[in-house]
Amino acid sequence: MEQYLKQLPKLAKDKHTENKKYFDKLKKKTPKDLDYKMQLIHDDVFKKTDCLKCANCCKTTGPLFTFADIERVAKHLRQKPQQFISQYLRIDEDNDYVLQSVPCTFLDHENYCMIYDVRPKACREFPHTDRKKFQQISNLTLKNVEICPAAFAVVEEMKKKMPL
Description:
Helix content is about 55%, strand content about 5%. It is mainly alpha-helical. The protein has nine helices and three strands; from the N terminus they run ααααβααββααα. Among the domains are: about 60-120, no CATH class; about 125-164, no CATH class. It is globular and about 50 Å long. α1 (about 1-30) crosses α9 (about 150-160), α2 (about 35-45) packs across α9 (about 150-160) and α5 packs across α6 (about 80-90). A hairpin with a 5-residue loop joins β2 (about 90) and β3 (about 95-100). It has a three-stranded antiparallel beta sheet.
């Protein structure tokens, strides 16, 4: 897995132009049943995916924290939201709350999330390949295929099962 994760950014870069063209066509000519097909592909890929063997998302990127996320996680940690913010978060260039550093503070040495039950919405939904109106997040998906082997596999399956 580690070797594959090292190769993933290059694999994604090599496929970037092809994927971008595919997503541009998808936006122009969205299949009526795209959400249904995407759910099937997503489910199929994730049946074969063990995120605990990878955790590359947690090791290389940090999620955005909404106010609801901050309140939920702070409560879980028995902190006041402001205390949680000052201890773990910073405001990024887009004015969003993000972790002060990566890898994620809440990732343990066995790739388990120590706040899994209350983790941020961005973490729960990552890599967003089962999101409704998937065609609207193509730029995000192009970034996620560089990080997540499952997202890479989902996009490759899409191109096979839904040629445009």
